[in-house]
Amino acid sequence: MFWEIFDFLSSKCSTKTADWLMSQTKHRPQVAIICGSGLGMLADTLKCQDSFAYSDIPGFPQSTVQGHAGRLVFGELKGKSCVCMQGRFHMYEGHSLLKTTFPVRVFKLLGVETLFVTNAAGSLADCLQPGDIMIIKDHVNFPGLVGLNPLCGPNDDKFGPRFPAMSGCYDKNLRCLAMEIAKQLGVAGLMQEGVYAMVGGPNFETIAEARLLHRLGVDAVGMSTAPEVVVATHCGLRVFGLSLITNKVVKSYEDSDSVNHEGVLEVGRLRSHTVQQLVTELIGRMEINNNNTNNAA
Ligand SMILES: O=P(O)(O)O[C@H]1O[C@H](CO)[C@@H](O)[C@H]1O
Ligand SMILES: Nc1nc2[nH]cnc2c(=O)[nH]1
User: Fold this and answer.
1) 93 noted as active-site residue
2) ipTM exceeds 0.90
3) 292 falls within a domain
4) PROSITE patterns, from UniProt (predicted)?
């Protein structure tokens, strides 16, 4: 009963929100971008903007984290129609996973075909330094592995199947194109592919946790992204993801470094231009398949 009410509300709500947005803007986005902590400047690249505070959008959750402005920006980028979330929702804010991923289904209903997810993350791999950019090749969804998954509850067949495959959820062609663009922009030295892991947060890792993640083969860790990608893949969106490495995760008891959110945001500011260039070129050069038949509407 509980799940039935929840599911009904989610499905109805996303349709209501998408309809409201379509009544307020002429943009019909093909691409959606979710900005990670300190990466909200990605929206500044959009031309002919229509912008909405989350608090004005029916059904939208509210951002509570510093570095997440809480605005949905529509606009054009290199001839493609885009929508950009300046601020995402995290599980640790107290949102249900249905709420943290709610915008993804709204994007599907708006006709979006490709989702760009970005985040700030700590590095566990020795070869990833603060300021580097990791193209996400795959993820480990730790909350998902223990049942904290936005797809739990009755399946909404309008969006996708009960048991969606997640192998290949980060599009290989887009990953290759991103590396090619990085070479042309002269920033290939900052970039490599890796595995992102989502943990629940809001605390950063203990040293024992950091060592565990490292041994498990995780390259970068954060507190977001995986649920959005699961929901996007479930409803057939193509996904590209990148992590801006904002800090090294402390793995040694001898190391006196410690991470804080202000430092995370600062690295975002320092790398804003490069991240903007990469995303702009990638969106400009990627093919749109127009395979969002919008059959979830
Ligand atoms: O994942 P995004 O939203 O980029 O933010 C990352 O940065 C914050 C910690 O500084 C956490 O919210 C973590 O998930
Ligand atoms: N969990 C986690 N999230 C982050 N976001 C940015 N840096 C970090 C980090 O070191 N750990």
Assistant:
1) yes
2) yes
3) no
4) PNP_MTAP_2 (PS01240)
88 is in an annotated binding site: yes
Q: How many domains does the chain have?
A: 1
| Ligand 2 atom nearest to 261, measured from its CA | 6
Dist. CA 197 → ligand 2 center (Å): 10
> Considering the domain boundaries, does residue 245 fall inside one?
yes
**Dihedral sign for Cα atoms in the order 241, 134, 264, 92:** positive
Number of C-beta neighbours around residue 236 at 10 A: 17
Domain of 44 in residue numbering reads as 2-285
Q: Is 196 a catalytic residue?
A: no
List the one residue out of 268, 193, 196, 252 whose CA is nearest residue 227.
Answer: 196
Is 223 an annotated catalytic residue? yes
The C-alpha R_g of the chain, in whole angstroms, comes to: 18
Q: Does the residue 271 lie in any domain? A: yes
Residue 258 annotated as binding? no
Residue 41 is a catalytic residue: no
Digit-by-digit pLDDT tens for the chain (297 residues) are 455 556 556 678 899 999 999 999 999 999 999 999 999 999 999 999 999 999 999 999 999 999 889 999 999 999 999 999 999 999 999 999 999 999 999 999 999 999 999 999 999 999 999 999 999 999 999 999 999 999 999 999 999 999 999 999 999 999 999 999 999 999 999 999 999 999 999 999 999 999 999 999 999 999 999 999 999 999 999 999 999 999 999 999 999 889 999 999 999 999 999 999 999 999 999 998 766 654 454
Structural domain contains residue 290: no
What is the position in ligand 2's atom list of the atom closest to the CA of 249? 10
**Residue 159: burial class (beta carbons within 10 Å; 0-12, 13-18, 19+):** buried
